[in-house]
Amino acid sequence: MRSNVLQKILLPAAIIIAGFAAVFFLSDLTTNARPQLPDDYADSDLTINGSKLKGFAFGMEGLIADMYFTRSLQYIGDKVAKSKSDFINVEDLRDLNPRLLYPLLKNATDVDPHFIAAYSFGAMIMPAIDAEKAVELASTGIANNPNEWRLYQHLGYIYWRLGQYEKASEIYEKGSQIEGAASFMKIMAASMKTKGGSRETARAIYRHMLEGAEDEQTRITAERRLKEIDSFDERDAVDRILAEFKERSGRCANNLAEIFPMLATIKLPSGKDFRINKANQLVDPTDAPYILDKNSCVITLDIERTGLPDTRTTQR
Length: 316
Fold this sequence. Notes:
Blueprint: H1 2-33, H2 61-81, H3 101-111, H4 116-125, H5 131-144, H6 149-161, H7 165-176, H8 184-195, H9 199-211, H10 216-249, H11 260-263, E1 275-276, E2 282-283, E3 291-293, E4 298-300
Antiparallel strand pairs: 1-2, 3-4
Helix pairs in contact: 2-3, 3-4, 3-5, 4-5, 4-6, 5-6, 6-7, 7-8, 8-9, 9-10
């Protein structure tokens, strides 16, 4: 009797325990023997082409397109988060090698050609990665949605980013002729011809983009750009005052508080005022204190604290 119990219970249990031990051993062995994968392993080519899913999604095109769009947002976010660089140039993201962003957005818009948010996001970020693909995506959006005047706004914005002001003017003009188009489209068409590269035009573009933002990424980008432009105006004004102070006194100001009375007389182009925090510090549009570089007698951003992009390589 006792022998039967040993055979039916203890022996199988021993086999199971031995099996688990073998699994753990083999797991450690395979982990240690696993080859080192390259950093861009996660960037393996997409296995499914979105255009081939049309007609086979059984009414779930919107859900599939959302999946690709969400993945595109996560993808570029991960690229930024995992970057080992101390400086990310928002005007040029090619160093991040985000080569799958366009395929992800294209899949989203191939499955759902009327996915306006995907076209909008592409227009905001693709110019910093691949201008040709940015134009292609926005142009496809217009072809698929010819009555969506905002897509003309996005394409005009891309050409403006590229410095092709005549082409941007042409696109804004076409968009302004669509029923229901905002009046600023006509204004932008004219501005591109006369002052396309001005800060004033940039502010108008991002302000209208913010007012009509239909997705969170466009809204965030437009807000950041507007704050950046405001900071350019503030830094230009402060640098002029610092230069005047130095010419009069023969030295640079000891601190920014020393020129506050002079700053009080300045009218900023945006119609806004300088901001001084409770610690009596002059702060940028994200409330981070400006830093006085006494060697060159100009102010700079506090890169560690500001919410503005580091524009050390961008002229202002």
